[in-house]
Amino acid sequence: MSEYNLEFDATPSWSGYNYQGKVALYVVLDKLCKLYEDGRSAEISDFSLELEWIEDFAVIQKCGDENVYKSIHQVKALDKTDIKDYGEAIFGLAAKVIEYNTIDEAYLHTWKPINIAAVDWKSSIKTLAQRHREETDLISKMERLLTDTTEFINTYKRILKPKSGPVPDIIKRIQSNIAGKITVETIKAAIEKAIAFAKQDSAEFVAKLTDERLSKIHLFSYGDSNYCDLEAIKDKILEKINKHLELQKVGDWRKSDTKYKETIYHYLMAEIDKNVVERHKTYSQNNKITISFQVFENILESQSLSDRSKEYYLFHLKNKFFDLYNDYCKRCTKKTVDNKVCLSCNLITAIEDVKNMDFETFERFCRVLCADVKGEIHAIEVFQRIFEPTGVNACFFKALRDIKKEHEVKKEMIRYTSKDKKTLLLTALADKGTDDDSSYVCLNIIQNKDIDGALMDIDELVSKDFDEESIWECAKKISMIEDFTDPELDFYDHICHCKRVSIKPVGDVIRRLNND
């Protein structure tokens, strides 16, 4: 995935990723519609979508016994309109067009209009590609990796186990040249190949970038414009879903059912999300993971998609969580113009960890973060209570932003270890302003059988404003716990009865951990 630079905005991780996934889905739907219009719907299963491999995404077609690249796509979520700011992206597209002769089209996607006349496009992209080639300073750094054992080992570890956050350009260059499984030998070979590629004479590179190849590089057209704002891309997708249903010549209720089209949209986006998560899980194996267009087509043809399934709700919850994150970062008063504070912010690292959770893992994360919410995740009353903004913003996000100590992720829990060896779990628990709030919250935590095991290693829950030394004793203030007995639970074997688990306000925790 590309490194996104939303100027004066600290939300590149999810905004860029979410936008990229939606753009990829739009391109898939656009291609499906064209196949129907050209009378080639029988070829749908020959096409597949590849995310985060040779480019942000690519469309692949099966031709005989081979799967070949037909179009590649760079997605840039830059708040800029000058073509010069997209030099790296254009160079990347140009290099791939030279390397893969099966590519018919190489597209740049932007969410801001590019100020350039059509007549200047070809000469501008040729100049930018050449300039980027000449200005690269990575050759000496890559050569040093072959002689400096320490730097090589650090790079090897970084590639073998990718860290959250933006990927340095030198790592991306090496990764793109790895052949087969990741080993010391394949990485050395990849470095040598990357150096050789970087050392190619600029004139030779430009000579290879013929008019024919240049003509393959375009700004992507969304019909009425050559850009698509983040806020508009969903509506564009829904328009394509509607068009696809019309091309299918369906005479059923789906064409006029707006709510069902929304359901289709969420199931399609869930496939994108699952693929990206799986891609990150298997990254070190250097395996390609694609999505067949037939997967999307099956969803579009279905008449029985449920808007009450667990996966449907979890997809909504994941988007709800990241919408809260985007809003929190946009309002953050600690940002600087150059975003240096944002680059070192632990919240951004934690968000990467959450982003890469599959739905099953994300559900467990929801359970722990909102430990007082009981019941099935797809029950509407439970769904509505997960990620209430006050607790998420004022506790979870605030703690990650303001605590200087590095957090850890274990068993889907984001937590800290204090100097006195206590384990503190971040939550989104918050006072709602009613009498005995803390006691009812503590009682709900004790009764929540989904998180009993998760609390085994925890000494303290971090909340927005609760301050209790013992969850168990606090719950007893409103009634004897046995009065609320669940036949499936033996409360006196509960971890909160066997050991003292406290719940403390986030401000106090921030001060303590920063003084450790």
Spans of at least 5 consecutive residues with low confidence:
1-14
N/C terminus separation: 36 Å
* Main pleated sheet: 6 strands, mixed
How many distinct helices? 22
- What number of structural domains do the residues give? 3
* SS-derived structural category: alpha/beta
Shape by Cα distribution: globular
Helix content: 40-55%
* Rg from alpha-carbon coordinates: 26 Å
Describe the structure.
With 516 residues, the chain is α/β, with parallel strands linked by helices. It folds into 3 domains: 14-133 and 210-301, no CATH class; 134-207, no CATH class; 310-515, no CATH class. The chain has helices at residues 12-37, 87-99, 121-135, 138-145, 149-160, 169-175, 184-198, 202-208, 211-214, 233-247, 258-281, 293-301, 310-331, 340-343, 346-355, 359-369, 380-385, 389-402, 437-447, 471-475, 495-498, 506-514; strands spanning 47-51, 57-63, 66-76, 105-110, 217-219, 290-292, 408-410, 413-417, 423-426, 460-463, 502-505. The strands form 2 sheets. Strands 5-4-3-2-1-6 form a 6-stranded mixed sheet. A 5-stranded mixed sheet has the order 7-8-9-10-11. Strand 2 (57-63) and strand 3 (66-76) form a beta hairpin. Pfam families: CTD1. This is ABC-three component systems C-terminal domain-containing protein.
